[in-house]
Protein backbone atom coordinates (compact mmCIF):
# COMPACT_ATOMS: atom_id res chain seq x y z
CA UNK A 1 0.00 0.00 0.00
CA UNK A 2 1.44 3.33 -1.06
CA UNK A 3 1.58 6.10 1.53
CA UNK A 4 1.63 8.79 -1.17
CA UNK A 5 -0.76 11.64 -0.32
CA UNK A 6 -2.37 11.20 -3.74
CA UNK A 7 -2.82 8.02 -5.72
CA UNK A 8 -5.02 7.35 -8.70
CA UNK A 9 -5.35 3.66 -9.53
CA UNK A 10 -6.80 2.42 -12.84
CA UNK A 11 -9.17 5.38 -12.96
CA UNK A 12 -11.75 5.46 -15.74
CA UNK A 13 -14.10 8.28 -16.70
CA UNK A 14 -16.39 8.52 -19.68
CA UNK A 15 -18.93 11.13 -20.62
CA UNK A 16 -22.24 10.10 -22.10
CA UNK A 17 -23.88 12.18 -24.78
CA UNK A 18 -26.42 11.68 -27.54
CA UNK A 19 -23.52 11.07 -29.90
CA UNK A 20 -22.45 8.11 -27.73
CA UNK A 21 -19.89 7.45 -25.03
CA UNK A 22 -16.69 9.46 -24.89
CA UNK A 23 -14.09 7.56 -22.87
CA UNK A 24 -11.71 10.23 -21.52
CA UNK A 25 -9.72 8.32 -18.90
CA UNK A 26 -9.15 4.64 -19.55
CA UNK A 27 -7.13 3.23 -16.69
CA UNK A 28 -5.11 6.22 -15.47
CA UNK A 29 -2.53 5.56 -12.74
CA UNK A 30 -0.66 8.29 -10.88
CA UNK A 31 1.17 8.47 -7.55
CA UNK A 32 2.41 11.77 -6.14
CA UNK A 33 4.73 11.68 -3.13
CA UNK A 34 4.88 14.22 -0.30
CA UNK A 35 6.96 17.21 -1.41
CA UNK A 36 6.75 16.22 -5.08
CA UNK A 37 5.42 18.52 -7.79
CA UNK A 38 4.28 16.93 -11.04
CA UNK A 39 3.54 18.80 -14.27
CA UNK A 40 0.60 17.60 -16.35
CA UNK A 41 1.17 18.70 -19.94
CA UNK A 42 -1.26 17.42 -22.54
CA UNK A 43 -3.18 18.74 -25.55
CA UNK A 44 -6.54 20.41 -25.10
CA UNK A 45 -9.41 17.99 -24.68
CA UNK A 46 -7.34 14.99 -23.57
CA UNK A 47 -8.69 15.03 -20.01
CA UNK A 48 -6.50 17.27 -17.81
CA UNK A 49 -9.44 18.97 -16.12
CA UNK A 50 -11.19 15.62 -15.74
CA UNK A 51 -8.11 14.18 -14.02
CA UNK A 52 -7.84 17.22 -11.70
CA UNK A 53 -11.55 16.99 -10.83
CA UNK A 54 -11.24 13.30 -9.99
CA UNK A 55 -8.07 13.87 -7.94
CA UNK A 56 -9.86 16.69 -6.10
CA UNK A 57 -12.88 14.49 -5.33
CA UNK A 58 -15.12 16.86 -7.28
CA UNK A 59 -16.21 14.00 -9.54
CA UNK A 60 -16.31 10.25 -9.06
CA UNK A 61 -14.59 7.82 -11.43
CA UNK A 62 -16.68 5.25 -13.33
CA UNK A 63 -14.08 2.66 -12.33
CA UNK A 64 -10.82 2.59 -10.41
CA UNK A 65 -10.10 4.45 -7.21
CA UNK A 66 -8.63 7.69 -5.89
CA UNK A 67 -6.69 7.38 -2.63
CA UNK A 68 -6.05 10.39 -0.42
CA UNK A 69 -3.45 9.67 2.25
CA UNK A 70 -4.09 5.99 1.65
CA UNK A 71 -7.87 6.24 2.10
CA UNK A 72 -10.11 5.15 -0.74
CA UNK A 73 -12.32 8.10 -1.67
CA UNK A 74 -14.98 5.71 -2.98
CA UNK A 75 -15.60 4.46 0.55
CA UNK A 76 -16.41 7.95 1.86
CA UNK A 77 -19.82 9.57 2.25
CA UNK A 78 -20.48 12.86 0.44
CA UNK A 79 -19.86 14.68 3.74
CA UNK A 80 -16.59 12.81 4.16
CA UNK A 81 -15.48 13.85 0.68
CA UNK A 82 -16.41 17.46 1.37
CA UNK A 83 -14.43 17.42 4.61
CA UNK A 84 -11.34 16.09 2.81
CA UNK A 85 -11.72 18.73 0.09
CA UNK A 86 -11.86 21.42 2.73
CA UNK A 87 -8.97 20.31 4.91
CA UNK A 88 -6.64 18.21 2.79
CA UNK A 89 -6.81 19.51 -0.77
CA UNK A 90 -5.98 22.99 -2.08
CA UNK A 91 -7.24 24.08 -5.51
CA UNK A 92 -5.96 26.78 -7.83
CA UNK A 93 -8.33 27.25 -10.76
CA UNK A 94 -7.54 28.87 -14.08
CA UNK A 95 -10.20 31.45 -13.25
CA UNK A 96 -9.46 32.16 -9.66
CA UNK A 97 -13.01 32.35 -8.23
CA UNK A 98 -12.11 34.83 -5.48
CA UNK A 99 -15.12 36.18 -3.61
CA UNK A 100 -15.54 39.77 -4.89
CA UNK A 101 -17.16 41.20 -1.76
CA UNK A 102 -14.31 40.10 0.53
CA UNK A 103 -10.81 41.53 0.85
CA UNK A 104 -7.66 39.63 -0.18
CA UNK A 105 -6.92 38.61 3.41
CA UNK A 106 -10.52 37.59 4.04
CA UNK A 107 -10.52 35.43 0.91
CA UNK A 108 -7.56 33.53 2.40
CA UNK A 109 -8.97 33.49 5.93
CA UNK A 110 -12.43 32.14 5.05
CA UNK A 111 -11.43 28.59 4.09
CA UNK A 112 -9.40 28.37 7.30
CA UNK A 113 -12.39 29.50 9.36
CA UNK A 114 -14.58 26.96 7.51
CA UNK A 115 -12.08 24.33 8.68
CA UNK A 116 -12.30 25.52 12.31
CA UNK A 117 -9.63 28.24 12.72
CA UNK A 118 -10.38 31.40 14.70
CA UNK A 119 -10.79 34.61 12.70
CA UNK A 120 -7.69 36.04 14.34
CA UNK A 121 -5.42 33.08 13.54
CA UNK A 122 -6.85 32.81 10.03
CA UNK A 123 -6.16 36.48 9.29
CA UNK A 124 -2.64 36.23 10.71
CA UNK A 125 -1.84 33.30 8.42
CA UNK A 126 -3.49 35.11 5.50
CA UNK A 127 -1.14 38.08 6.01
CA UNK A 128 1.90 35.78 6.21
CA UNK A 129 0.92 34.10 2.96
CA UNK A 130 0.24 37.43 1.24
CA UNK A 131 3.70 38.58 2.30
CA UNK A 132 5.27 35.36 0.99
CA UNK A 133 3.65 36.01 -2.40
CA UNK A 134 4.76 39.66 -2.52
CA UNK A 135 1.39 41.19 -1.70
CA UNK A 136 2.16 43.12 1.48
CA UNK A 137 0.08 46.30 1.40
CA UNK A 138 -2.73 44.66 -0.59
CA UNK A 139 -4.34 42.86 2.36
CA UNK A 140 -7.46 45.04 2.49
CA UNK A 141 -8.03 45.29 -1.26
CA UNK A 142 -11.05 43.60 -2.77
CA UNK A 143 -10.30 41.44 -5.85
CA UNK A 144 -11.74 44.12 -8.16
CA UNK A 145 -8.99 46.49 -7.00
CA UNK A 146 -6.20 43.99 -7.73
CA UNK A 147 -4.55 43.24 -11.07
CA UNK A 148 -5.20 39.85 -12.70
CA UNK A 149 -1.79 38.60 -11.60
CA UNK A 150 -2.31 39.80 -8.05
CA UNK A 151 -5.67 38.04 -7.94
CA UNK A 152 -3.99 34.87 -9.11
CA UNK A 153 -1.40 35.13 -6.34
CA UNK A 154 -4.18 35.56 -3.78
CA UNK A 155 -5.82 32.43 -5.20
CA UNK A 156 -2.57 30.44 -4.78
CA UNK A 157 -2.17 31.71 -1.21
CA UNK A 158 -5.79 30.73 -0.52
CA UNK A 159 -5.18 27.22 -1.85
CA UNK A 160 -2.29 26.82 0.63
CA UNK A 161 -4.14 28.40 3.56
CA UNK A 162 -5.23 25.15 5.21
CA UNK A 163 -1.79 23.57 4.81
CA UNK A 164 -3.17 21.00 2.37
CA UNK A 165 -1.53 17.61 1.82
CA UNK A 166 -2.46 17.89 -1.86
CA UNK A 167 -2.36 20.89 -4.17
CA UNK A 168 -4.15 20.76 -7.54
CA UNK A 169 -3.59 23.61 -9.96
CA UNK A 170 -4.73 24.49 -13.47
CA UNK A 171 -2.37 27.01 -15.13
CA UNK A 172 -1.57 28.65 -11.79
CA UNK A 173 0.67 31.34 -13.24
CA UNK A 174 -1.13 31.76 -16.58
CA UNK A 175 -1.94 35.46 -16.17
CA UNK A 176 1.47 36.52 -14.91
CA UNK A 177 4.34 38.14 -16.77
CA UNK A 178 7.52 36.06 -16.98
CA UNK A 179 9.33 37.71 -14.04
CA UNK A 180 6.35 37.54 -11.70
CA UNK A 181 5.53 34.02 -12.82
CA UNK A 182 9.10 32.94 -11.93
CA UNK A 183 8.88 34.43 -8.46
CA UNK A 184 5.41 33.10 -7.74
CA UNK A 185 6.38 29.66 -8.96
CA UNK A 186 9.55 29.69 -6.80
CA UNK A 187 7.39 30.48 -3.76
CA UNK A 188 4.92 27.77 -4.72
CA UNK A 189 7.79 25.27 -4.99
CA UNK A 190 9.11 26.30 -1.59
CA UNK A 191 5.70 25.81 -0.02
CA UNK A 192 5.28 22.39 -1.66
CA UNK A 193 8.76 21.14 -0.72
CA UNK A 194 8.87 22.78 2.70
CA UNK A 195 5.52 21.41 3.80
CA UNK A 196 5.55 18.01 2.08
CA UNK A 197 2.63 18.80 -0.21
CA UNK A 198 1.87 16.52 -3.18
CA UNK A 199 1.22 18.84 -6.12
CA UNK A 200 -0.26 18.25 -9.58
CA UNK A 201 -0.05 21.24 -11.90
CA UNK A 202 -1.64 21.32 -15.37
CA UNK A 203 0.19 23.75 -17.63
CA UNK A 204 0.80 24.49 -21.29
CA UNK A 205 4.04 26.28 -20.39
CA UNK A 206 7.03 23.99 -21.15
CA UNK A 207 9.52 26.18 -19.23
CA UNK A 208 7.36 25.96 -16.13
CA UNK A 209 6.89 22.21 -16.57
CA UNK A 210 10.67 21.67 -16.72
CA UNK A 211 11.05 23.23 -13.27
CA UNK A 212 8.87 20.52 -11.73
CA UNK A 213 10.06 17.14 -10.46
CA UNK A 214 8.61 15.25 -13.40
CA UNK A 215 6.33 15.71 -16.35
CA UNK A 216 3.46 13.46 -17.30
CA UNK A 217 1.01 13.57 -20.19
CA UNK A 218 -2.22 11.84 -21.15
CA UNK A 219 -2.21 9.35 -24.01
CA UNK A 220 -5.21 7.21 -24.87
CA UNK A 221 -6.72 7.91 -21.49
CA UNK A 222 -3.66 6.92 -19.48
CA UNK A 223 -1.01 8.89 -17.61
CA UNK A 224 2.40 8.42 -19.21
CA UNK A 225 5.76 9.96 -18.32
CA UNK A 226 7.39 12.55 -20.57
CA UNK A 227 11.12 11.99 -20.78
CA UNK A 228 13.18 15.19 -20.99
CA UNK A 229 14.56 15.99 -24.42
CA UNK A 230 17.70 17.76 -23.17
N1 LIG B 1 -19.40 17.18 -18.49
C1 LIG B 1 -19.01 16.74 -19.68
N2 LIG B 1 -19.90 16.16 -20.54
C2 LIG B 1 -19.51 15.71 -21.75
N3 LIG B 1 -18.24 15.78 -22.20
C3 LIG B 1 -17.33 16.34 -21.41
C4 LIG B 1 -17.64 16.86 -20.11
N4 LIG B 1 -16.52 17.37 -19.57
C5 LIG B 1 -15.53 17.18 -20.47
N5 LIG B 1 -16.00 16.57 -21.57
C6 LIG B 1 -15.21 16.17 -22.74
O1 LIG B 1 -14.15 15.34 -22.28
C7 LIG B 1 -12.93 15.60 -22.95
C8 LIG B 1 -11.86 15.98 -21.91
O2 LIG B 1 -12.21 17.24 -21.31
P1 LIG B 1 -11.23 17.99 -20.28
O3 LIG B 1 -11.92 19.25 -19.92
O4 LIG B 1 -10.87 17.06 -19.19
O5 LIG B 1 -9.96 18.27 -21.22
P2 LIG B 1 -8.67 19.19 -20.94
O6 LIG B 1 -7.50 18.35 -21.32
O7 LIG B 1 -8.71 19.73 -19.57
O8 LIG B 1 -8.85 20.34 -22.00
P3 LIG B 1 -8.36 21.90 -21.97
O9 LIG B 1 -6.87 21.88 -22.00
O10 LIG B 1 -8.96 22.43 -23.24
O11 LIG B 1 -8.94 22.52 -20.73
C9 LIG B 1 -13.23 16.71 -23.93
O12 LIG B 1 -13.42 16.12 -25.19
C10 LIG B 1 -14.50 17.33 -23.42
O13 LIG B 1 -15.27 17.85 -24.47
Automatic annotation (TrEMBL):
Q: Which UniProt keywords apply?
A: ATP-binding, Lipoprotein, Nucleotide-binding, Transport
Q: Where is the ABC transporter domain?
A: 6-230
**What GO terms fall under cellular component here?**
plasma membrane
Keyword Ribonucleoprotein carried by entry: no
Asked if Transcription is a keyword of the record, the answer is no
Q: Name one GO biological process term.
A: protein localization to outer membrane
**Single Gene Ontology MF annotation:** ATP hydrolysis activity
Similarity annotation: Belongs to the ABC transporter superfamily.
What name does the UniProt record give this protein?
A: Lipoprotein-releasing system ATP-binding protein LolD 1
Annotated organism of origin? Neoroseomonas lacus
Upper lineage is: Bacteria, Pseudomonadati, Pseudomonadota, Alphaproteobacteria, Acetobacterales
